[in-house]
Specification:
alpha/beta, Rossmann fold, two-stranded parallel sheet, 9 helices, 39% helix, globular
């Protein structure tokens, strides 16, 4: 199976390459290879590569910056998906597209099923919802929404917290936004399984459990300090969203209902804290 992974240098792209099944011929590309926002370049490169499977991990993910750069966000998160879907259809490739919990407004009080209506609060969420529509128009397309992704490498909340814990005696973290932290490696394994099972349409995947950003930060501190990744005396201070204003509004509650996806892949993932421990072990092992 010839597989093209876009956004190949990102944390999910790297996890997919690292966990690829035996027999998969993986080509991971990033912006330096070709611009996904250029339909001519996309068509030319896909015709030359002739992949059977495209996993689109590329995205404009600067949530706050998107408010002042809507054209760039929609070009990367919606239009690029259209070009991938069209070029993929020409070479007979199946498209797997990664989306986000930010397509919801956070007004719910129980996990969002994949069939729930979308209502994004900002440009980033709206651009990702636009990308979902483009991917759904692709025959046999698979869209997987996830949330709060992190890994041992790259830029993410877990790595940021470890850095701040080593720089400051106390760190303020929002405590009234609820979601589910998700290991990139856990998501990568699920994506390979969903593809093997022929899943299509909208699906949700995160690790098990739910947390606030404060809960996650506190867990990073507790688990990180015992592994020597940060000092033991740091104080994690819970604050309200209104105490930390940002250009983009975040959903207050974005827990996704994953029961159908978990049934499709045949396993229930570990609780997010167990995956966090495994990730911190990898960070500690890497020095």
């Amino acid at each position: 199976m010839k597989v093209l992974i876009t956004g190949g240098l990102g944390q999910l792209g790297r996890a997919l390459s690292a966990s690829a099944p035996q027999g998969a011929e993986v080509t991971a590309v990033d912006l330096a290879d070709f611009d996904l926002c250029d339909p001519i370049a996309v068509a030319r490169h896909l015709a030359a590569m002739a992949p059977e499977l495209i996993i689109n991990c590329a995205a404009y993910t600067a949530v706050d910056k998107a408010e002042s750069e809507p054209d760039a966000a929609f070009a990367a998160n919606r239009d690029a998906v259209r070009w991938l879907a069209q070029a993929g259809a020409s070479c007979g490739a199946r498209l797997v597209h990664i989306s986000t919990d930010f397509v919801f407004d956070g007004a719910a009080s129980q996990p969002y099923p994949a069939t729930a209506p979308t209502h994004p609060l900002g440009v980033y969420g709206a651009s990702k919802a636009g990308g979902e529509a483009e991917a759904l128009a692709s025959r046999g397309g698979l869209i997987v929404r996830t949330a709060w992704l992190y890994s041992a490498g790259g830029q993410n909340f877990v790595r940021t917290m470890l850095r701040l814990f080593n720089e400051r005696p106390s760190v303020n973290v929002v405590a009234d936004q609820i979601g589910t932290p998700t290991s990139a490696l856990s998501l990568a394994r699920a994506l390979w399984a969903l593809n093997d099972n022929g899943a299509t349409g909208l699906n949700h995947y995160t690790d098990a459990g739910a947390a606030s950003w404060y809960d996650l930060a506190q867990a990073v501190f507790e688990e990180g300090s015992v592994r020597g990744l940060c000092p033991t005396g740091v104080v994690v201070v819970p604050i309200r969203t209104e105490d930390y204003p940002t250009p983009a509004q975040r959903p207050a509650y974005s827990v996704l209902d994953k029961t159908a996806t978990w049934a499709a892949i045949g396993w229930r993932p570990m609780h997010w804290r167990e995956e966090l421990r495994a990730t911190l072990d990898r960070i500690a092992a890497d020095g």
